[in-house]
Amino acid sequence: MKGVSYKRFGGSEVLEYGELPEPKLSQNAVIVRMMAAAINPADVALQAGFGENFMETWFPVVPGWDLAGIVERVGAGVVEFQPGDEVIAYTHQEILHSGTYAELVSVPVERLWRKPRNASWGEAAGLPLAGLTAYRAVVDTLRVSDADVVLILGASGAVGSLATQLAVGSGATVIGSASVSHQNYVTSIGALPIQYGDDVAEQVRKHAPAGVTAIVDCAGHGSLATAMAVAIPGTRVCSIADGGPGVTTVFARPDSRILARLVDLAESGSLRVTVAALFALADAAIAQDALKARSYGPGKIVLVPDVA
Q1: Residue 260 falls inside a structural domain
Q2: Taking every annotated instance into account, which residue ranges of this chain make up the domain Enoyl reductase (ER) (predicted)?
Q3: Which of 26, 99, 227, 238 is the right S-S partner for 64, CB 3.0 to 4.6 Å?
Q4: What is the CATH number of the domain that holds 229?
Q5: Which residues of the chain have pLDDT under 50?
């Protein structure tokens, strides 16, 4: 099969496209033919070696954790899926070795769920990691409700945009920070837009003079410290980027319960993934460079087997 791998840590220059061994099929796994694989900042960071102190790495590594595709074969113990099923998966493993930048991917059955019927392959591939993170932040950690005023830092990003939609769907008043060029996008997903900058607190108070009851930091780079000026006693705070006293750090975690809920929300029209650009699998290095350079507007950068 064709796939992308790297044999040493580094940037996009270490990626190699070529023939790879087909994955093995264990009793409780499924072989999925990749129709789309979203690129995430975590792929780039781990590839650069930033996870070396807390994750084992077995070279060569096939990067990627987000997958949408078609079931080709199922293990002897799998009854939940059958060949031909359209599925999505968050394939994270504690050992960096097997990923989704490949034509065929072996996935433990508990990491899979059915693909949203109304989603394109690219949209479906962009849902698992970002959606799991956003759901754990907004629903499971902060328990946002219609009584809340929520500030989303980085509301136009992959996680931030889904967190915004989840908070809006809960009935909360949502304020979302983004760059100047992404203000209209933030409005389109239901939030009150504000711009990045040192005057974030002042901008927030124009919409919420009394402050906010919850903050979701999807931006990092110290933006949370500035935003804490609009917190009030009892404000709940979580971050996917920074930690600190009173801040709950949230990461994606494989959870079929949440994947099922995300699919339901996507099919109801309450949650949508924006795809910024599609790249052929062979052009994974170019796609990673585009992600780092932020060459495209809001949305996911997604790999597909080929671009027609």
Answers
A1: no
A2: 10-303
A3: 99
A4: 3.40.50.720
A5: none
